[in-house]
Write a structure and sequence with these properties.
It is built from 1 helix and 3 strands; from the N terminus they run E-E-E-H. With about 70 residues, it is of the alpha+beta class. The longest helix has 18 residues, at about 35-50. It has one helix at about 35-50, and strands spanning about 10, 15-20, 30.
């Protein structure tokens, strides 16, 4: 069975790429290169799915929006 997941990728202040899967609680990883990040997030997804006791319900991707708040 094939499943698809939305993955958000950002870069932190140290230059690491950080990936997270919004539909899976606690599913995230980091790496220095994009290829390594993709490999690691695939592994993280597999581990999260093994740990999930509930049935997975995928979220529909709508888009990404940057919101700025003035403080």
């Amino acid at each position: 069975m094939t499943q698809s997941f939305n993955v958000i990728i950002e870069k932190d202040s140290d230059g690491y790429l950080v990936a997270s899967v919004p539909s899976l609680k606690g599913c995230h990883t980091q790496a220095k290169s994009y290829d390594e990040l993709i490999e690691r997030i695939q592994e993280a997804i597999e581990l999260c799915l093994e740990m999930e006791n509930e049935e997975f319900e995928p979220l529909e991707f709508i888009g990404v929006q940057r919101v700025t708040i003035k403080q």
